[in-house]
Amino acid sequence: MRILAKDLRDAAERSEKDIVLSGWIHRIRELGAVSFIVLRDRSGLVQLVLDGKCEFTLESVITARGEAALNEKAPGGAELRVARIDCLSRAAADLPFQVNGDVSKTGIEAILDQRSLSLRNPAISAIFRVQSTIIEAFSAYLREHDFTEIKTSKLVSGSTEGGTNLFAVEYFDRKVYLAQSPQCYKQTLVASGLERVFEVAPVYRAEKHDTPRHLNEYVSLDIEMGFIESEKELIELEKGVLAHIFEEVARKNAADLALWVKNGASAPGADAVFNAPVITYEEALGIANVESAKKKGARIFDINPDAERYVCDWALREKGVDLVFVNEFPRRHRPFYVYPLDSVRTMSFDALFRGIEITSGGRRQHDYDAQLEALPRFGVKPESMEDYLSIFKYGCPPHGGFAIGLERLTAKIMGLANVKEASLFPRDRRRVTP
Ligand code: AMO
């Protein structure tokens, strides 16, 4: 009977005599006339005991047949006593990456250069099992709340976020751009009558930063919904989304979190998420300056990365949770599509989690005349936004939404220092391979 590594102990308790396990050789230890092979499959690691020497190299793919036996000293409390072993694919001996090593001691460039091998390391693959749960839980929660999943084009004729951070692409005889976000499309689909939509897809930012928080391609978890009055309803929705994601990660990925526990990997409890404070931009600036002064830091004029860290430190100390929602951002800090609260403030918000912004969002301007009038003030030519403006011309509900950066959320749950570690094949200014 073919089983997974995680099921060997059950098979041993039933004294199964004919068990088949398939996977990669993770480790080999020879002790006199016996070899101990650690086999790795998608469910984990398991020990095989073989009479004689192991002829195969590390990372070779094998199938082993034998008897399941209990052994409290073996990982998982059981082992396979091998009767027959076959090699399905032999690995070359000159492995350029030590798959069974301690990756906390390996530099990020080596990990990324050798991605196909580094992903075999159980701690590294754990990051992407958690990421898979995040996407699944995000989507499941929204479907449960009557949202429709959409997939929109990533080739666009111009900016969606304002600014010039766009990658140009040759498109027949003209130039188009990679989308910075599905912003215009998600708003279009709310107005088109779907009312509640979400999208999980890559977005592209031609930002020249090379920092531990920026990627040039990342996955955006986007939400947009109609018939809201303010960003406060969106904050409540995001609390529900995050609480569900964290609950699912804690339930399904306990073993994956355990591999990063030294780095602080954990999923906050739902109560903590629902208790997360909501403070205004002005309050956040005040808190950041008090915290900065305590640490003899510089005066803070904006919610910059230092301020994000200070505000999260404050929330953890005062409210017991390292998640904070900051709303009422000033107009000058937000894109053209935001809805004003008054002449200075907007109905917008960010979510800060464990020291970094993971979400931006807010209510949108849905009034045609007001949007037309606002565009030039943001340096956007109304002629270039005709399709976008037409959304509002023909009947559009008040609406809003937000986007969570998948890699930032994953990195913060796992305690990773660099967002690139939470991207399978990260793209930065220099890296376009593997
Ligand atoms: P914004 O540009 O703030 O908002 O992006 C939303 C979230 O995406 C993540 N993020 C990034 N992650 C990795 N690398 C980057 N270069 C990067 N840039 C942004 C962050 C951020 O909070 N259209 C709006 C959202 C909305 O209003 O619905 C937008 O894209 O986690």
Record keyword descriptors for this entry.
binds aspartyl-adenosine-5'-monophosphate; OB fold (Dihydrolipoamide Acetyltransferase, E2P); eight-stranded mixed beta sheet; 26% strand; 434 residues; BirA Bifunctional Protein, domain 2; five-stranded mixed β-barrel; alpha+beta
Can you describe this structure?
The protein is an alpha+beta fold and 434 residues long. It has 2 domains: 5-89, OB fold (Dihydrolipoamide Acetyltransferase, E2P) (Beta Barrel); 115-422, Bira Bifunctional Protein, Domain 2 (BirA Bifunctional Protein, domain 2). 31% of the residues lie in helices and 26% in strands. The chain is built from 13 helices and 16 strands. The protein has helices at residues 8-13, 108-113, 115-118, 122-144, 183-194, 231-252, 254-258, 270-274, 281-294, 305-319, 368-374, 386-393, 406-414; strands at 19-31, 34-41, 44-51, 61-70, 78-89, 148-149, 155-156, 168-171, 174-178, 196-204, 217-226, 278-280, 323-327, 348-353, 356-363, 399-405. It has an 8-stranded mixed beta sheet with strand order 6-10-11-16-15-14-13-12. A 5-stranded mixed barrel has the order 1-2-3-5-4. A 3-stranded antiparallel beta sheet has the order 7-9-8, with no helix packed on it. The longest helix is centred in the first third of the chain and has 23 residues, at 122-144. It is elongated and about 85 Å long. The model has no long low-confidence stretch (mean pLDDT 96). Bound molecules: aspartyl-adenosine-5'-monophosphate.
